[in-house]
Write a structure and sequence with these properties.
mainly alpha; about 60% helix
């Protein structure tokens, strides 16, 4: 992407410096990702997200990436990701091979940042790294995964409308974030 450069070393150092302030990284807002990795990382992700929206790249993949990472809330019946505004780091850093045509070097840089941060935390304690694993919710927030799984299953089997499923999943995410905030209160 023209004009976007990512200093991987700085993004990793920012993560390592700030991750201890976070109670969980399973469900993060854009602002929290910025706090955790710095503005360059968020700008790179936002540029890819913008490209995807404009080109329909992700919308046309049929959920391949969501299935690949084992997303517990994915259903082809959803018009959108039910947890997009609070999606896990794994989802935020996952840019499939189709993004290579846009800026392969930036895709690789984001993957490198993610893997370095995952590895650094895995080596040091492993608590945050569980939130960066596959599947993204089951390991990082098993209570939330257990609560949303029946809703997603009901959408998949047709006993619940996709719109109602999204609403219920978002309520569960908000309830989880209320009791498990990403960063401690000031």
């Amino acid at each position: 992407m023209a004009g976007i450069e990512l200093d991987e070393t700085r993004a990793i150092a920012t993560f390592l410096d700030r991750v201890g302030r976070f109670a969980q990284v399973a469900l993060l807002t854009d602002a929290e990702v910025g706090e955790l990795f710095g503005p360059e990382t968020v700008a790179a992700m936002a540029a890819f997200d913008s490209f995807s929206r404009e080109s329909g790249l992700c919308a046309s993949c049929g959920g391949e990436c969501c299935r690949e990472i084992g997303c517990e809330v994915y259903s082809p019946l959803f018009q959108q990701c039910p947890i997009y505004d609070n999606r896990p780091l794994l989802c935020r850093f996952h840019f499939c091979h189709r993004f290579d045509q846009v800026d392969k070097a930036l895709v690789i840089a984001l993957r490198d940042v993610f893997m370095a941060c995952y590895t650094a935390d895995q080596i040091s304690s492993g608590t945050i790294a569980r939130s960066m694993s596959v599947p993204p919710l089951e390991n990082g927030c098993p209570i939330l995964a257990a609560n949303v799984q029946p809703v997603a299953d009901s959408v998949r089997d047709g006993s619940l409308s996709p719109g109602e499923g999204i609403r219920l999943i978002r309520e569960e995410v908000e309830r989880y974030r209320r009791y498990h905030p990403a960063s401690p209160a000031p």
